[in-house]
Amino acid sequence: MKSAILKLAVSAACLTGAAPAFADLVYTNGTQTTGTGLGAVSTVVTVQDNGQGNGNPPNVNGIQSGCVTFTSGNPGTPAQTCDQGLQGGDNTAGNAGNNTYFLSDIAGLTSAGQLGFTVNISEGAPGNTATLTDLYLSLFNTATSTRTFYSYTGPDLVLGDSGGIGQSGLNLFLLDDAQAAAAMLACPVLSQCVVGGGIQFALGTTQAAPETVYVGAFERGGTGGPGGGEVPEPGSVALLGAGALAIGALRRRSKAKGR
Fold first, then answer.
1. Is 83 exposed, middle or buried (0-12, 13-18, 19+ CB in 10 A)?
2. Share of residues in the chain with pLDDT > 90 (%)
């Protein structure tokens, strides 16, 4: 998937003369706010490495990992299966704090390019930290039955929060320019797309306390966004699609000449 997104970015660069942005979820500092505990925000994943499983054998190997995946039916009762190589098994019991959402139900969201995840660490003493190794956001288009992924692929991150449960968390992951454009292409109609995702922490860095991931609409660009990039305008998204089509046509023409 990352390869496909990068091709789209390269296509846009060919048409606009700009350098392609690297496709990634970008880590940045959020703002701690109260009143954002479970039930107060759009919580996607809640994981707890204390032997609680999701109906499968509990994951007791010290790696805390959990995901939610929408296939059909009610977004509030998604499957707790993982993609992108995450092992899963540590979602909190039942569906408490494990949900998927139609993009049209996310407060303030007007474009899929505004999507972002906040990760709340609630480990407590002594260090109140956990080492994040994997995080991805998924989008399922119910009209086309296609799923796209947007992953954090940087180095492992030692994350911490002083607020704990009931606070927003300071750890914000936003779509970069290329992924924002790709998300807008994948989900032009917000009411037809469902967001899910997954998270995983390194062996032995978590204890019997829940970590949460919630989804929201975030402004990109300026001082609060990654790389100073803004959510792409519709014309930029069109250029991405046109560039991809042009490259595909050139490849087909090249193959035809080689026969």
1. middle
2. 39
pLDDT tens track for 102-118: 999 998 999 999 999 98
C-alpha torsion sign, points 37, 39, 43, 44: positive
Tell me whether strands 193-201 and 101-102 are parallel, antiparallel or unpaired: antiparallel
Domain extent, residue 224, equals: 22-239
Assigned domain for 197 exists: yes
Domain membership of residue 248 (yes or no) is no
Residue 249 lies in a domain: no
Cα distances from 91 to residues 10, 99, 162, 191, in angstroms, run: 37, 11, 22, 26
Strand partners, 126: none
For the stretch 128-183, pLDDT in tens is 788 999 999 999 999 999 999 999 999 999 988 765 555 555 788 999 989 999 99
* Beta strand pairing call for 211-217 and 101-102: unpaired
Q: Which two tokens stand for residue 245?
A: 């089509």
* Distance from C-alpha of 38 to C-alpha of 196, rounded to nearest angstrom: 16
Q: Which of 6, 31, 30 is nearest to 19 (CA)?
A: 6
User: Helix 177-186 crosses helix 234-258 at what angle (to 10 degrees)?
Assistant: 80
Domain-located, residue 158: yes
First to last CA, the chain: 29
CB 131 within 8 A of CB 123: no
Pairing of strands 211-217, 115-120: antiparallel
